[in-house]
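Onboarding guide, step 5: your first structure request.
Type a short instruction followed by the sequence, for example:

Predict the 3D structure of this protein.
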Amino acid sequence: MATRDIYETGFDEDVQTDSSANQCPECDGHVTTNVKETVCEDCGLVIDEQRVDHGPEWRAYDEEERERTGAPLTAARHDRGLSTEIGHGTDAHGNELSGQKRRRLARMRREQTRGRWRSKAERNLAHGLGEVRRLASALELSKSIRDQGCQLFRSAQDEDLLRGRSIEAIGAASIYGACRCNQHPLLLEDVVDAARVESTRVTNAYRTLNRELELPTPPMRPTSFIPRLISELGLDHDIRRRANELAERAEGATLTNGCQPSGVAAACVYLAAQEQGALITQSTVASTAEVSVVTLRSRRDELQAI
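The system replies with structure tokens like these:
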């Protein structure tokens, strides 16, 4: 006889004893089911245990307010978000603490801060992840890209890539690598502007990450930069659609091979704006795309020759 045929499943009651089908498969004795296990009262056979709790995983203090039992684990913190915070001045109910309790909490807070990191590696990890979170916030990146950047920083530390390199440079390279893996139209110069380190260090750190970790970074396409250029230049939707058509034509003619994608995108936007009669200069488009005017003119001439 199968276990599912022995008793009727019901998770809303603590003990079930009223079913006539509750019989032990060994001795045909009486079976009792509680919240944890199903046991035969005669021979002691445990028929089922560790039952699934189908109750809510949230807690409610009133009918309108429901709170989860805790925040989910995150890769953006060195302790996965399981840190302990000791408050100041008041208890959990908002009541004022006495002077003796405040001094005691201050001593506990000081000791907790001193013992927060078990090693220098964990302290460096906390500092690096904080830098990654700061860059993601400054660049207005999504939470998924931020978490991927934090995971890249963890992988870099596990592979001992931080030795001899700046933590800020590895953090900036992790953010840029996460953007490249997701084909996010972010230039390296944008990351450098928000970072607290020189451009050469960020470039070298990204090359190291890309080589040692074998990042799945596909080539950037000019179409990825066009929406950003259109938004920053304040152009309309018709120019954007025409610029995308020009970019796809350039990719089909292998014009983008060996060329900077942002330069091709800038040329497509400039040509589309000229066709639509928009008054915009080459220097404005080039500065927005962070390329030189000479690069924009070269890509424009190549597009016109197709």
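Each response can be followed by summary notes, for example: Confidence is low (pLDDT under 50) at residues 1-20.
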